[in-house]
Specification:
Helix content: over 70%
Distance between the termini: 43 Å
Structural class: mainly alpha
Radius of gyration: 16 Å
Number of helices: 13
Order of helices and strands: HHHHHHHHHHHHH
Oligomer: single chain
Strand content: under 5%
Length: 189
């Protein structure tokens, strides 16, 4: 049941009226449910919701308050994506690069982490090409994140026409999502 919720959460997040409701509901469930595997999934969802909703301070505080669980070396790959995103968001390049493991790309099946890795290593052309392949999927939060990293690449590659098209596409999405808000703030002041 929890896996179904995790798989469907990106679809729910694009509806602005659901973001606040989902944050509250998931936080309440974390406080009430004490089954380890369910709680790990709920914590992951909560971190994901905080991160995309632009609650940067709450995001950082929650991850740090739960660092014993999240950053435990013995943890399964369940927390791998959370740790990568956390390091990337805090601009902790060295920690991100130490943690990133290309061998896990096929297991995690999330091209965003390789794109972030390439961006951090200033391999913008390679990251740009990968972001184009990744966005063929349905238009959910992963799509928005790929657009965001594609915009970063296009800025560095100085491809103004493609950049303009990508920014316009990004702005079609809910501006409560911090990737969209950042682009909107940057390009439409």
């Amino acid at each position: 049941m929890m896996n179904i919720y995790i798989i469907n959460i990106p679809k729910l997040l694009l509806k602005s009226e659901n973001i606040e409701k989902n944050l509250f509901t998931v936080k309440e469930a974390i406080d009430k449910i004490h089954n380890k595997s369910i709680n790990d999934c709920l914590m992951t969802i909560y971190i994901y919701l905080l991160e995309i909703s632009n609650y940067k301070e709450e995001y950082q505080n929650f991850v740090e308050q739960n660092s014993e669980v999240i950053f435990d070396e013995k943890q399964s790959r369940h927390w791998y994506t959370v740790k990568l995103q956390y390091y990337y968001n805090l601009n902790k390049k060295d920690e991100y690069l130490k943690l990133y493991n290309p061998k896990l790309d096929n297991k995690v099946k999330n091209p965003l982490f390789k794109i972030m890795y390439l961006v951090l290593n200033e391999k913008y052309e390679e990251a740009f090409e990968l972001s184009k392949k990744a966005t063929i999927q349905q238009k959910d939060i992963r799509y928005i994140m790929c657009l965001y990293y594609r915009i970063i690449c296009l800025e560095h590659l100085k491809k103004e026409n493609e950049l303009s098209n990508c920014v316009n596409e990004m702005l079609e999405f809910n501006d409560q999502i911090h990737y969209v808000k950042e682009i909107k703030d940057k390009y439409h002041k």
